Amino acid sequence: MDTIFALASAQGRAGVSVVRISGPAAFEVAASVCGALPSVRRPAVRALRDAGGELIDHALVLVFQAPHSFTGEDVVEFQVHGSIAVVRSVLSNLGAADQARLAEAGEFTRRALENEKLDLAQVEGLADLIDAETEAQRKQAVRVLSGALGNRVERWRADLIRSAALLEATIDFADEEVPVDVTPEVSALLLGVADDVAQEIAGSFVAERIRLGFEVALVGAPNAGKSTLLNRLAGREAAITSEVAGTTRDVIEVRMDLKGLPVTFLDTAGLRTTDDAIETIGIERAIARAREADLRIFLEEDGAPLLLDPLEDDIRVQSKADLRRSPKGGISGKTGEGVSELISQIADMLETRSLKAGLAAHERHRMAMLRASQDLAAALEQVARGPEFYDIAAEELRSAIRALEALLGRIDVENLLDEIFSSFCLGK
Q1: Strand 295-300, strand 100-102: pairing
Q2: Domain count of the fold of the chain
Q3: CA 3, CA 28: separation in Å to the nearest integer?
Q4: Which of the residues 147, 242, 317, 394 has the least number of beta carbons within 10 Å of its own beta carbon?
Q5: Which residue, 322, 354, 386, sits at the end of a domain?
Q6: What is the distance between the terminal CA atoms of the chain, rounded to a whole angstrom?
């Protein structure tokens, strides 16, 4: 492979910036700028100089020898002062050596995958960790990056390989008397894997919401106080408030960190019957987004009909508590009355849901597990029909194994790699 280099820390001015070099000529390329390299994994300060010998900066230099590095290759990292000019000069001089080139987006991580330092699920976990904004997102991404999903899939794969081997042995000795009936053991293994996969599929929907963020829709009639409440939640004037009914025509979104969970509140158009064509479009969008949301908060006023029925877990509150004689149990976005209690109720409900989150947080994971689940069901059906159908069952198991291997990036994912790594920055 080519030797590559890039800024591994964030772009822009900083206290410290990290420049990473990886590949077969990493040591030689690094030495052309810093002189003699320090010993492996014993960092030392070196003067970085350009081709003319002029000082660029003093850097802490770290050396990692293959395969003991992030990429699995020889790697050198320079920790330099985070000046834009310093970083630009270092990168320019590394490129001038003609032995290395600037890394492409995600190329360091892609090499880690190709050198089996990470599986594809861990790569996606790393991307999720970089994008994490809340504590729940961080914890979920760290679990995947640490290899928890890969380890679980490996256990499933081992049980399926064991089952397939038992079936193949029976097929190979079909003309002889086989002393042991393998059906009970195979069935038990397959049922165990099938149950685990089904649970992980169910948990993947919650895990995906944690990764992308829960959506909570504020629903109610015109002038029910939805926009005022949204502004109170956001702590700013995110939505226009007015005494004129129908002010909100489109869905307004405000993203928040709600006790560690990523939550997007949706201010929707007031629900009513109207002859205004534009307002009608807004109401239709409001109903559609509210139905797709993870939770709906209905702001109710006495006698105000709604065009959308609340679900069992939805929250219903009396709005404009500041204008009511008996505001107990109500809410007011204007004064803040009841808002803290509402936030706690929303957070508790979403936190309870998040406890059911699995490790798989991407649709790609879910689709691979669904394919494996279907193959497992077919294999169980064939095993139950008797030994004469073991060959068909074995083929179904091989198909299930391939689906799980694709989840980890071992086969049939080459067409996905460019899309996955394009989301990474150059330094990863």
Answers
A1: unpaired
A2: 3
A3: 10
A4: 242
A5: 354
A6: 17
Contact 225, 201 (CB under 8 A): no
Residues 204 and 217 occupy one common structural domain:
no
- Helices 339-354 and 226-234: crossing angle in degrees, nearest 10, is 80
Same domain, 202 and 309: no
Whether 422 maps to a domain, the answer reads no
100, 78 Cβ separation under 8 angstroms: no
- Tell whether 32 and 151 lie within a shared domain: no
**Alpha-carbon gap, residue 121 to 366, rounded angstroms:** 12
Q: Structural domain of residue 349, as residue ranges?
A: 213-354
For residue 242, being part of any structural domain is answered with: yes
The reported pTM is 0.80
* Residues listed for the chain: 428
Residue 425 counted as domain residue: no
Tens digits of residue pLDDT in 160-191: 998 988 888 777 655 555 556 778 889 999 99
For residue 167, is it left (φ>0), alpha (ψ between -120 and 50) or beta? alpha
Of the CA atoms within 13 Å of residue 108, those in its CB half-sphere come to 26
pLDDT in tens, 315-354: 888 877 777 655 566 887 788 788 888 889 999 999 999 9
- Which residues have CB under 8 Å from 123's CB, separation 6+? 109, 110, 112, 113, 409, 420, 421
